[in-house]
Design a protein that fits this description.
Bound molecules: zinc ion
Strand order of the largest sheet: 2-1-12-3-6
Number of helices: 5
Order of helices and strands: EHEHEEEEHEEHEEHEE
Helix content: 10-25%
Length: 180
């Protein structure tokens, strides 16, 4: 069922960037979406590469999360993919976060309670935890919050050495659907 594209209060749709319609489809593997109806057919703004990925092949399932990095007092609100590489690129292009691997970076995600500095190289992994993306070991079904943790698990747990990593999307994930 279609609903009117009513933006949540405070969302600025005048932000530049490719516009895309998204829909919360029925993900059998992530039933914990919040109020899916509300987000139906919302027009969202995504990064250029995400837009390319979604438009190149309409069958690709592109999953995005709303960025809540602080930009002068309000969250960014652009929709980003949940991978470490995509997060790093987004932080560099839209929030000027760059540096050497060991440079200290403070997390500016809204609601982040981490008061310490992160290494530049590890901030994207930390953001993944804000998106609540988890990684599941296909063998023992244990979930891990970060890719380095599951890699460590597979090194120490013999029986899981050849297991696959299954990405479990976070509760606020949205699936992009192209406007037709
Ligand atoms: Zn952002
Ligand atoms: Zn944080
Ligand atoms: Zn395992």
């Amino acid at each position: 069922m279609r609903s009117e594209a009513v933006p949540p209060p405070g969302v600025d749709f005048s932000q530049s960037g490719p516009a895309i319609r998204n829909a919360l489809c029925s993900f059998s593997w992530s039933p914990q979406f919040v109020n899916p109806r509300f987000h139906d057919d919302q027009i969202i703004h995504v990064d250029q590469k995400t837009w390319y990925k979604a438009t190149r092949n309409p069958n690709t399932k592109v999953i995005v999360y709303q960025c809540k990095w602080d930009t002068q007092g309000s969250p960014c609100r652009r929709w980003i993919e949940g991978g470490v590489r995509e997060i790093r690129t987004h932080l560099r292009i839209y929030h000027g976060v760059q540096g050497q691997a060991k440079d200290p970076i403070r997390c500016k995600w809204f609601g982040c309670s981490d008061e310490r500095d992160f290494k530049y190289s590890s901030i994207p992994r930390h953001i993944v935890t804000h998106l609540k993306v988890t990684l599941l070991c296909s063998n023992c079904r244990t979930q891990f919050p970060r890719d380095d943790r599951i890699q460590f698990h597979r090194r120490i747990a013999r029986k899981c050495a050849r297991a696959n990593t299954v990405t479990v999307v976070g509760p606020e994930a949205r699936l992009i659907r192209l406007d037709s």
